[in-house]
Amino acid sequence: MTTEETKKSEEHSIFIGGKPFMNYVTGVVIQFNKGANEVTVKARGKFISKGVDVAEVSRRKFLEDKNVSVKNVSIGSEEFENKEGKLVNVSVLEIVLKSN
Questions:
Q1: Global pTM value
Q2: Handedness of CA 27, 71, 69, 94 (dihedral sign)
Q3: Burial class, 52, CB count within 10 angstroms (exposed 0-12 / middle 13-18 / buried 19+)
């Protein structure tokens, strides 16, 4: 993937964290309203279920007119260093939504 493709991919990505739920839903809807054909919802660890909810609420409640569907779902794990300096694995979920 080229640097430009990576930048464009991250531009249309929503990273799920501790902010209020509707902030993420709004982010997905705004990306599609700005003309994005695909938006990726990315979540790790305890935020995975929130990521699924964001994708589904965005798709079913706010983007019905754009006929958005789930293009791809991928799972995996990432290794990172925690606060104590110990390497730990965390689960990762990516949901790619596509406007038809």
A1: 0.85
A2: negative
A3: middle
Helix (H, G, I), strand (E, B) or coil at 89: strand
What are the residue ranges spanned by the domains of the chain?
3-99
Strand order in the sheet with 13-15: 13-15, 38-44, 87-99, 68-81
Confidence label for 9 from pLDDT (cuts 50, 70 and 90): low
Q: Is residue 70 a contact partner of residue 61, using CB atoms and an 8 Å limit?
A: no
Whether the CB-CB separation of 81 and 87 falls below 8 Å is answered with: yes
Measured distance CA(77)–CA(88) in Å, rounded: 10
Class for domain 3-99, per CATH? Answer: alpha beta
Q: Which residues pair with 73 in a beta bridge?
A: 95
